[in-house]
């Protein structure tokens, strides 16, 4: 409400102008300063050089006249070819000779001035008015023999005229040049900024219209080009993430539908024919579907957490795999055999026997990686669940250190996965057809969670043929 002080308003006004305006104004201001300074210097130099020329001329004329006077050959009618005024004054102060148009009675300089002018040996200014000359004069006095003095003078007006002409040209020309250059700057800057304007328009259109749009990339390999490419890369990533998110939502909705439909059907049937209904059987069926829903929700949550972290592990703690793996496998009982090479096994047992309190230190020779124990445990569970679903024989889990990596393998002797599908199964919601028929199958998120968790821990996972069966191989960098 309170009126802004004018200075603040001006600053605000300036800030609101475009970049093009700012650049043009600043460039023009610098240019104007440079032009004014150079005009000033030029006029100064011109004046000095013209003055030097005039001074040179009158000195020359005076010298010539002195030579003639010394030789006593001064003509009665003194003439000067270039209009220089000359007076020759004898020792008594009388003018003996003068050029036509020059006062023959009054010397241009009186006795005192003559003496000081001769002594100084320099030209000086003199007002011509008292002598009937309507200009400033440049005057030089030289002494000759027999007490004579020669005075030479030239009107300064010619110099003044030249300087005035030059000044006029500059006064008119400089602003004109400035306007021209400012106009050129405005155009050049506009042209330079055009790709940025194009980028802005492109961005506008992207938000306005459908997805899958890219910003226009200028042809010139300049900063704007790299900016546009970088932004386009970012857009591509965002688009991919967006597509992934949409796919996830629609897949998840799709997966939710069948257990919900199944629950609904069972309940409707049971309620429609309450008489001959085996409620226990219904409850079991509903429970089974509910478990499926719960598993799906849990898997989705795990994936959401992985996405949230953007490919980094949740915690960064030392995880003793040689302890975590057997502990996790324990719940499967005899269905899973854990094998850890002897040396490590002993080291682990030794640790346990020695002092349980030192567990956190990571023990000598243990297989320790850095990360999130809960997430790594889930990796094993997902792999073992898959294996158990496809085999009847015990699943073999092996853990060993190999170079800088911990290698965890889960091997079953089931039907395996044909080579072309071994990568695809890691995608979200990917189940192979044979597995779709199995009731206990999940939503196809298990391996996706495995891969994303392992990647977040800086490792890699792949499936290979165990002939017969399948082997999942997880590599994690040791800490
Ligand atoms: N040990 C295995 N043997 C044979 N096929 C497997 C094995 N593990 C996974 N698969 C196949 O890979 C698909 C994807 O596995 P996963 O991502 O864990 O999803 P889900 O277990 O929910 O089906 C499974 O549907 C199955 O067809
Ligand atoms: Mg699974």
How would you describe this structure to a colleague?
The chain has a five-stranded antiparallel sheet. Strands 7-9-10-12-11 form a five-stranded mixed sheet. It has three domains: about 15-210, no CATH class; about 225-300 and about 300-305, Helix Hairpins; about 310-350 and about 365-475, Heat Shock Protein 90 (2-Layer Sandwich). The protein starts with 5 loop residues before the first helix and ends with a strand. The protein is rod-shaped, with a radius of gyration of 52 Å. It is about 55% helix and about 15% strand. It is α+β, with helices and mostly antiparallel strands. Helix 5 packs antiparallel against helix 6 and helix 7 crosses helix 9. Bound molecules: adenosine-5'-diphosphate and magnesium ion.
Could you name the key traits of this structure?
single chain; 479 residues; alpha+beta; Helix Hairpins; Heat Shock Protein 90; 3 domains; five-stranded antiparallel beta sheet; five-stranded mixed beta sheet; 11 helices; 12 strands; rod-shaped; binds adenosine-5'-diphosphate; binds magnesium ion
Query: Shape, please?
Result: rod-shaped
Quantity of strands, as a count? 12
Distance between the termini: 63 Å
Domain unit count? 3
Q: Indicate the radius of gyration in whole angstroms.
A: 52 Å
Quick description:
The chain has 479 residues and is of the alpha+beta class. It has three domains: 17-209, no CATH class; 223-298 and 302-307, Helix Hairpins; 311-350 and 367-477, Histidine kinase-like ATPase, C-terminal domain (Heat Shock Protein 90, 2-Layer Sandwich).
